[in-house]
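Team,

Forwarding the record for the chain on the shared tracking sheet. I've put the sequence and predicted structure together so nobody has to dig through attachments.
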Amino acid sequence: MFGQGMDSARDAGGLAGTVLIPMRFVWPYGGRSVFLSGSFTRWSELLPMSPVEGCPTVFQVIYNLPPGYHQYKFFVDGEWRHDEHQPYVPGEYGIVNTVFLATDPNYMPVLTPDVASGNSMDVDNEAFRRVVRLTDGTLSEVLPRISDTDVQITCQRISAFLSSHTAYELLPESGKVVALDVDLPVKQAFHILHEQGIFMAPLWDFCKGQFVGVLSALDFILILRELGNHGSNLTEEELETHTISAWKEGKSYLNRQNNEHGTAFSRCFIHAGPYDNLKDIAMKILQKEVSTVPIIHSPSEDASFPQLLHLASLSGILKCICRYFRNCSSSLPVLQLPICAIPVGTWVPKIGESNRRPLAMLRPTASLASALNLLVQAQVSSIPIVDDNDSLLDIYCRSDITALAKNRAYTHINLDEMTVHQALQLGQDAYSPYELRSQRCQMCLRSDSLHKVMERLANPGVRRLVIVEAGSKRVEGIVSLSDIFKFFLGG
């Protein structure tokens, strides 16, 4: 029944004059060899699928189909498979996926009960069902509508879960947390951040006997910009002995200068206790615009002898959500929708759209100074680095700045002359040989479900996903951890 031919034809047979519609088939679940077969090949041919550049676990093939109802399935590593996240039905050749294509833009197909989707993975495939239409010779997607009720149900259940669980559930069985003394020289502090592979650390004041703040990669960015400012009072020589506490005082002075009222920005130390619920911690991160919240416990009532237990982040909280709802994701209807159908993330504005916030991107030839200015002024944590076609090449993050601490590189570079590409090359040695550089550019597709995106963002070290077009890797948007939580909690 299923022939083993490997004909690479891309057109379905049909009557002369039939309008053919290019249809992209995607298998996003990995494999060594992946093929496509279906009713449009009379189940007699295997069409080879190619891995997407930059996404080795995603395979695709484009095939021209006539309008109508089609069935298909995938031949993966010698086994017949169907995509359980797409519409599927029991058919003559077992369980097969289905797709309907129409040329009438006003036509919406009505699937009869015998064509209803299965649900063996607790996934509401109705939410994924798309109809490809031909409009003025171009393809367009009919995106599933978001029900206000579904959004409300999903957000309420996640909010209830977070409100009923505490920071104790974030604590690992074992691990270490790095803290820095405020009397440590800034230069030495950033060497420590670089060597430990971390981008921030809580600050301990020995005289006060308490934690008083946080030193982050953003501080290093501000320091380098200040060094590059010819009118600065901070010199490279002073940086050798400049303590963290002195920098914090100087930063407060700079803030007063930048504040039109001449008053200091009195930002208190943001932390939480082990008994605080996860919703409160997530809201602190969103509202205070910080990346982590130290979890501190004091055994005494006067808060003396504080113990630093953990650094809570949105990634850890999201991991708790994914773990809790993993086997009952159908109870959260919105999780089954593709991210392109949900108001989440920052997207490249389409032609004619002027109300969207532009997505910050840079070419690899842009200066490091322009990248640092963009990180600070646009208040973003990362910038996609793209070629002339806006295809993703790399990503520059705030944390990449700590690579300049190695061999005191910051003392002999010019931020205006060094390019982003050179800065990234400089930082390559900072990554262990076991960490593939491609892992820096975590990507997803606009058709990926919110649930899949959440699972990816819950992985350690992943703070955002760049949304790319399959094949070309053209950047379409970016979705971060804070975007997900703002959608759920309205932060």
